[in-house]
Amino acid sequence: MLFLWTAPGRIQFPDDEIVFQTTASLVDRGSLAIAGIAHRTGEPPGRPPGTFGWAEGRDGRRYGFFGHGLSLAATPMYALARATERRVPFAWTRAVRSDHFTFHVREARADWHHLVVSLTNCFVTAATVWLLVRWVAWLGFSGRAALWTGVAYATGTAAWPYSRTFLSEPLSAMVLLAAAVAIAQAHALRGSRPRAADCRLWLAGAAAGFAVHVHVLNVVAWPCLAAYALWPLAAGPKGQDRKTRSFGTCLKALAPMRRGSIGAALLAGLGLGLLLLGQWLRFGDPLETGRFGHYSAWTWPWTGLWAQMLAPGRSLWLYAPAATLGLVGLRAALRSAPAATWLALSLLVTRWLVVSARTDWYGGWGLGPRHLVPAIPFVMIGFAAAVEELPTRAVAVRRLFWIGVAASAALTGWLATRSIFEWMIALTNDPRSAGHVLETSHFAWWASPIAGFASLQPDVLALGAVRLARAGHPGLLVGFAIVALVGLAAAGLVARALGRARAPAAD
């Protein structure tokens, strides 16, 4: 509910508009073909105006080159918008700020469709929070640690600002985490309920297969997920020395997981096969995504490597401060949940390395380290371990930790009320960054959104609802009030659960 209250109610990026058009085409015509954006938006130098985000297929029609997973996930929201378009007051569509750059022709029906579909990631991110709590709990952490990890992820990382967008990163995080949850459940069930463990592994394979349809980059997570699934094979029976373990013993340890592992591999392969088939049908080449090398290329990774860790405009640790707090619990996480912790570290590192080797490592005009956002919920395992062992720390350490949690929420809440696209336009018009806007946004402290957002007005649909109520149209504000009541009730339940699971006092 918190995410809905900070949503802007509009499509902010040209990438989002292409994905929106694909969603609309799927629902309205059962097709992936789109019209594209009429005017110049994000085309690289030398590309004709109006060609951003799509490529011409073998049949002469235009197809978006972004993954279609988010378009599929958003079809219920688009169907809801289409079903309610005649019942919604015209005034509701005017709650969105009108002084922003738009990629569609402004009219009530189109505005309503964009408004509703733009809320998709609010629900996707909420689902990711729930999955994170479930994952941490299945790993054996206490309910208190699991709940606090979910709260910190939701309010203290880039997950909150990204819930405002219609970009694919929130859905990538959800799908990859769903695979991890299923694998953790399979590990827990393989001894007592092997059939249920097999079903969980199949779910993990299906999630991994769908992940590549959300963004093709998610394929780099496959080896990490596979290693996580097969961890019991490497660990062997409890109490057994790895040095004395035979190959036959390893195969015996794998036997209860064999059917589930094979099924998972087949389902993941089916997902990848469908992606390659779709690309062949549209572009005549199974390995062609539709970008045709116009938008990025391989490069030396040094700039991307350090920038995504340390640069003021792109650092993972600045834009996911709750995960940064979790670094103090990393050693504890390795002791208590080694398989899951190594999954988190390997998934982050492989994604970081591959992204850094591309010329578009920064993710366009996205906030912070856009391409690393799907790894953030996994990195939160350190936070869970830190909360778990916090009662054993000194009082001053505990106080500093919770002050850090509150500060993380304040920072990301600030970032979740402004538009990074609006700030990048402001940078484009700033003489201090003339000719090198992207480099300035990466490396200059004054150009980071943390500082720059102070010059912007809030970009929140709920404030538009307040303005409409003052003008005599209270309906939308009533809707937000209902959302707030539901959110407060949910927050009360979480607070009650945290109170019941209160940590024991330190000796």
TrEMBL record:
<feature type="transmembrane region" description="Helical">
    <location>
        <begin position="145"/>
        <end position="163"/>
    </location>
</feature>
<feature type="transmembrane region" description="Helical">
    <location>
        <begin position="169"/>
        <end position="189"/>
    </location>
</feature>
<feature type="transmembrane region" description="Helical">
    <location>
        <begin position="261"/>
        <end position="280"/>
    </location>
</feature>
<feature type="transmembrane region" description="Helical">
    <location>
        <begin position="112"/>
        <end position="133"/>
    </location>
</feature>
<keyword id="KW-1133">Transmembrane helix</keyword>
<feature type="transmembrane region" description="Helical">
    <location>
        <begin position="476"/>
        <end position="495"/>
    </location>
</feature>
<keyword id="KW-0472">Membrane</keyword>
<protein>
    <recommendedName>
        <fullName>Glycosyltransferase RgtA/B/C/D-like domain-containing protein</fullName>
    </recommendedName>
</protein>
<feature type="transmembrane region" description="Helical">
    <location>
        <begin position="371"/>
        <end position="388"/>
    </location>
</feature>
<feature type="transmembrane region" description="Helical">
    <location>
        <begin position="292"/>
        <end position="310"/>
    </location>
</feature>
<feature type="transmembrane region" description="Helical">
    <location>
        <begin position="400"/>
        <end position="421"/>
    </location>
</feature>
<feature type="transmembrane region" description="Helical">
    <location>
        <begin position="201"/>
        <end position="231"/>
    </location>
</feature>
<keyword id="KW-0812">Transmembrane</keyword>
<feature type="transmembrane region" description="Helical">
    <location>
        <begin position="341"/>
        <end position="359"/>
    </location>
</feature>
